[in-house]
């Protein structure tokens, strides 16, 4: 198995979560490739998260990571599929791609080019695990580090057209990187997204980084070397600064529930509560 950095290893956790969801009778989606993509480390990472989230000796106080991940995956599944049905959308970009298998498990219209951007070690491991499985879309990988200069040029070389509307998914990224890097990422995406392009991402609020009752989960990720370091209480305003008109939805709200979110969703004006946002919208 290749050596992954700490943030990359969280993709193995995501795959383990998706494999567990696939086994549920009430699953929100089916990912037949997730168990293989979780590798040898994914189940152990999931076990650590479960132990922190569901302590045997007291009620759960942390957000339910399995339910959150199931809702997030289904929410972005639906969003990408909706975008792909629009005739003006011909390009979808996952940055970073991690161990995502949407190119293989979902149906896609023939007019879509589907780009996965991630470091060579990640894409190489993924290709090996999916050996013999054909993607269901015009699938193109771009093996670069998103912190490097010039990854946009590599994307264009792979067939991406900055002059044509696109759809970008930044899933499981922004809370792992410092605010300056998150802003730079949004700036770079905006610079190569034509007007009308769509964007989607998940991000936490500031309180989720500091609330004492969140420590159990935060300590797990910090122990892995990938602490949560960035959150915002105004995600719409953050994306607006880079030319995106967006809406932020929280798990448990009507558009992001699917009957699975187990906790109350306090109104946005309530402070000092943990939140996660699914941000989605368009480039002006």
SSE order, as H and E?
Answer: HHHHEHEHEHEHEHHEE
Label the overall shape: globular
- The computed structural class is alpha/beta
Strand order of the largest sheet: 3-2-1-4-5-7-6
End-to-end C-alpha gap: 43 Å
- Please indicate the percent range of residues in DSSP E strands (runs of 2 or more): 5-15%
The major beta sheet can be summarized as:
7 strands, mixed
Mean pLDDT, to the nearest integer, reads: 97
Radius of gyration, in Å, reads 18 Å
> Total strand count, please?
7
What helical percentage do the residues reach? Answer: 25-40%
Total helix count?
10
Poorly predicted sequence stretches spanning 5 or more consecutive residues: none
Can you tell me about this structure?
This protein is of the alpha/beta class and 284 residues long. Helices cover 37% and strands 15% of the residues. It contains 10 helices and 7 strands. Strands 3-2-1-4-5-7-6 form a 7-stranded mixed sheet, with helices on both faces. The longest helix is centred in the N-terminal third of the chain and has 21 residues. The protein is globular, with a radius of gyration of 18 Å. The chain starts with 5 loop residues before the first helix and ends with a strand.
Give the helix/strand layout.
Blueprint: H1 6-22, H2 34-37, H3 42-53, H4 65-85, E1 91-94, H5 102-105, E2 113-118, H6 120-129, E3 138-143, H7 151-157, E4 166-170, H8 179-191, E5 198-204, H9 215-224, H10 235-240, E6 244-249, E7 276-283
Parallel strand pairs: 1-2, 1-4, 2-3, 4-5
Antiparallel strand pairs: 5-7, 6-7
Helix pairs in contact: 1-3, 1-4
